[in-house]
Specification:
Me_CoM_Rdtase_D, Alpha-Beta Plaits, alpha+beta, 5-stranded antiparallel beta sheet, methanogenesis, 37% helix
Length: 116
């Protein structure tokens, strides 16, 4: 694979997903072998539970269409109420000045580990 960073895929369910259902979806997507990492955007509650509102897939291949063709049946099964899929860049590649000022280094380390 070249040094070019492949695009990411965003899956946006039309309803918030429960933690268990989201974890099942993540495992099924990772089992395809085309996805390196799945990042989630979640809405936390005071009791520690959360609902998932967005998935960002960091893919292993340069062809996002191949990944979408593979995961679309999984998404149809797990989200019968509908979802939207977009291709693009959803995670920033390098820290901003604000990140350095705040000392926000956690995401930098974790993103570097994912990109390896």
């Amino acid at each position: 694979m070249s040094n070019e960073i492949p695009p990411e895929i965003e899956i946006m369910p039309r309803k918030l997903m429960s933690r268990n259902k989201a974890e099942d979806l993540i495992h099924l997507i990772k089992d395809t072998g085309l996805v390196k990492e799945v990042l989630i955007q979640k809405h936390r509650y005071s009791d520690g539970s959360y609902l998932v509102g967005r998935f960002i897939l960091i893919i292993n291949v340069n062809s996002p269409e191949e990944v979408i063709n593979k995961i679309k049946p999984i998404c149809d099964q797990m989200m019968p109420y509908g979802y939207d899929i977009r291709i693009g860049r959803f995670v920033k590649l390098r820290p901003t000045v604000s990140d350095y000022i705040r000392g926000d280094y956690y995401w930098i380390r974790s993103l570097e580990e994912v990109r390896k």
